[in-house]
Write a structure and sequence with these properties.
3 helices; mainly alpha; about 0% strand
């Protein structure tokens, strides 16, 4: 047992072998565009067009996932 209260998976350690395909700038743009598209999709779902809103939100998530974009605070700990 150690005295360190931080779990092992949350400890800041380098990600050996991880090299993103897209630059930080491209991933940030895709993240923001996906976030905006998800909010627009939620608006469609709440105000009368759930099928369109569901498609927009799902497509936004799929595109962001395809670019390797995800909000991951544990990955940011090493920056």
């Amino acid at each position: 047992m150690t005295d360190n209260p931080m779990p092992e998976h949350a400890a800041a350690r380098p990600q050996d072998g991880y090299t993103p395909v897209f630059s930080d700038q491209v991933r940030t743009i895709v993240y923001v565009a996906g976030l905006i598209a998800s909010i627009v999709g939620l608006g469609f779902m709440c105000f009368g067009h759930p099928e369109i809103g569901g498609f927009v939100s799902t497509a936004a998530g799929a595109i962001a996932g395809g670019f390797g974009v995800a909000y991951n605070p544990l990955r940011l700990a090493g920056k």
